[in-house]
Amino acid sequence: MTDQEKNDILALAKSLHPLERQILVSFPAQGGVTEAGLLRAIPTLQPAQLSMALGWLQAKEILQIIPPTGTSSTQPDEVLRQDAASPDLRQNAFIVSLTESGQCYAQYKCPPLRMIVAIEKTGTLPIRELQQRTDMNPDEISEAIGLLKKSGAVKVGAGGVFEMTDRSKLHTMNRLQKIIERVGSLSEGLDIKSFSSEDQELILFWHRKRSQSKGIFRMTDISRFSYEPTDLGREVIPHLANLQEEMGLLTPEILKEGSWHDRTFRKYYIQLPPPRISAGQKNPYRSFLDRVKQKFVALGFSEMRGPLIESEFWNMDALYMPQFHPAREIHDVYFVKGFPIDQTIPPDLVERVAATHQDGGGAGSRGWQYQFDAERTRRLILRSQGTAVSARTLAHHPNVSGKYFSMARCFRYDQVDATHAPDFFQVEGIVLGETVHFQTLLGLLTLFANEIARTDQIKFLPAYFPFTEPSVEMHICHPTLGWIELGGAGLFRPEVTGPLGVTVPVIAWGLGLDRMAMVAMGLSDIRDLFTPDLSKIRENRPVSRGEGGQRNGPFA
After folding, report:
1. Of 150, 184, 218, at which residue does a domain stop?
2. Residue 339 and residue 460 in one domain
3. Of 319, 333, 378, whose CA–CA distance to 508 is shortest?
C-alpha cells in the first residue's frame, strides 16, 4: 500500500461520525453481526441511530450486507416483504413502528373510537351520517362500522341508527389505541418483546402484511441480515483505536472555559450524497393550461368566459339542439337540485330562438317542428360543453372580424376510464369573418394539434352536430392508446348565428384539452393529470418538441 493510500484511509477514519466509530469497533475480527447483535453490544444505541449510521457506512463502502442463507437479495426490505405475513417472534427480533395510517390514529384516534365519540355526543347517530364523514376514507369507515357492530358495544336501531349499549365491550379497541399512542411517542419504534403477550397479538393482527397496502403497525426484522466490514472497512478499523475523541459541537461553555484549545474537532465528510430537496412548483397540468392560454393569446385570440352553472338556453337551445335531444337526459347532464331557473335571459332572444326551433324562424329551414318550452329553457345545469361560452359571446356583439377562445371546464355523467372523466376541460373557440371557411377551420385544427397536443399524427372524419354544417371530428394518435377522438368542429348553422344577431360566417371547435395534455405529457391515463402521487407529479413533463417524430414549430 502506498503512502498516499495509507493517508487516504487515515483521513477517512478521522472523518467518521462517533456513531460510526462506535459501531465499527463492535465488529469481530471475522464474520458479521446482525442489527440485534449490535444493539446488544451497544446498549446506549437506539434502533433509529443504528439504522442511520449503518446507512452512512454502506454509502462509504465500509460495510456490506450479508443476506440470510438461501436468499440472493442484498436488500433487507425485499425479504421482509416476503416474510412479514408470518413473523416468528421467538427466532427473530422485530422493531414495531407506525405506518402512515397508524400515525394518523395516534393523533386523532382510530376510526371506531372516533365514531364512538360522535355517537356519545347525541346518544344516537344514523349510520348514513357516519358514512358521510370526510375525516376517514370509505374503506376505514366501512371497516369501523363493521367492527362496532361485531363488538356489541353498539346496536343498530330502527331506521339504521347506531345506539350505545355497552361501553365496556370497547376494551380491545381502547387497548389498541393505547398501543398506537405508545409506539407513536417514540420515533425510533419499540422492540416487540417489550409488549405483553396480549398486546403482541393485537400488533400482529394489525401490522402491515404482504399483499396489503394498509395497516397500523410496521414490523422491521433486525435479525435476518448481518453486516460485515468490506476490505476497505477492515483497513479503517485498526486506525479507530488510536484516534483522539473529537468534538462535534462548540458550546458557549466550552468557549468560556477555553477547553477547546486541547480538543480536536470532527471534520465534515462532504462526499456523502445530499438529501434530495424537491422545490415547490406548479402542478404540471396547471403549467400546461397556462401554456395553452399563452399560445392562443400569441395568435391574437381574445379569451371568452362563462359560468360553470349554465342554463339550458345557452348550453343547448341557443345552439339549435332540440329539447327532445337525448343529451338532455339526466344520464348525460347534471341538473341543479330543485330545478332553479335563470331569469336573466332576454325574453326577445328566447322568442327568436324558440321560433327557429319551431319553424326555422327565417333561417331558411323548417326547424325541428315541435312546441318550444320557454320555461324549460331557463333551467340551470352544470355546463356540459364549452360551446355554451361561444353562444354567449355571439349574443353580446363580438368583433367582426374576431377570434375568441375559452378553456372551459365541463361536466357530463360518464364512466371513468383511461380517456373519460365526469369533469374535463375543453378548449373552445370561434372565428368570425367574411372570408373564413371550412379550409380555414382545418388549418387551425392542424395547428392546434401540432402546438398543443404536440403531434402531427392527425386525421379528420365526417361528423354530425345539431349546431354546425359541415361538421368534422378530429382524431389524434396516442402512442399507447392508439387513435382517440379529440373533439368536434364545423361552421355554425344560420339557425345558431341568426337569432344571436350574427350575419357573417363563424367557424367553431371544441377540443378535449385533457386528452391533448395526455399526448403532450406522455400519459396513458387521464386520471394521472389529477393524481395526488407526488412522485408522479414531479416526473410529469410535456414531451419535448421533436421527440417521437414530432415536428418543430414557432412555440417549441
Report:
1. 184
2. yes
3. 319
The Cα–Cα gap between 424 and 405 comes to: 16
- As a whole number of angstroms, the distance between CA 22 and CA 45 comes to 9
Q: Is residue 116 part of a domain?
A: yes
Does residue 277 sit within a domain? no
CATH number of the domain residue 361 falls in: 3.30.930.10
Residue 101 CA to its chain's centroid (Å): 17
Given 141, 165, 184, the domain boundary residue is 184
Same domain, 293 and 157: no
Strands of 154-157's sheet in order across: 124-126, 161-164, 154-157
- Residue 172, Cα to own-chain centre: how many angstroms? 35
**pLDDT 10s digit of each residue in the chain, 556 long?**
788 888 888 888 888 888 888 899 888 888 888 887 888 788 888 777 888 888 889 888 999 888 665 444 444 443 333 344 445 555 566 778 888 888 889 888 998 898 888 888 888 888 888 777 888 888 888 888 888 888 888 888 877 888 888 888 888 899 999 999 998 887 667 878 888 888 888 888 888 653 344 688 877 766 667 888 999 989 988 888 777 666 667 788 888 888 777 777 766 667 667 777 777 778 888 889 999 999 999 999 999 999 999 999 999 999 999 998 887 776 688 889 887 889 899 999 999 999 999 999 888 899 999 999 999 999 999 999 999 999 999 999 999 889 999 999 999 888 788 888 888 999 999 999 999 999 999 999 999 999 888 888 999 999 999 999 999 999 999 888 889 999 999 999 999 999 999 999 999 999 999 999 988 888 888 888 888 877 777 776 655 444 443 333 333 3
Domain count, the chain: 2
Residues 354 and 488 both lie in one domain: yes
Residues 348 and 491 in one domain: yes
Say whether both 167 and 307 belong to one domain.
Answer: no
Q: Which residue has the cell 395497516?
A: 215
List the domain range (segments joined by +) for residue 415: 285-542
Say which DSSP state 379 is in: B
Distance (Å) of CA 336 to CA 343, 377, 421: 15, 14, 19
| Residue 439 counted as domain residue | yes
By the 10 Å C-beta count (0-12 exposed, 13-18 middle, 19+ buried), 165 is classed as exposed
Q: Which CATH number belongs to the domain containing residue 169 in this structure?
A: 1.10.10
Is 1 a domain residue? no
Q: Which of 312, 316, 375, 323 is nearest to 496 (CA)?
A: 316
Co-location of 294 and 179 in the same domain: no
Residues paired with 468 in a beta bridge: 465, 492
| Pairing of the two strands 124-126 and 302-303 | unpaired
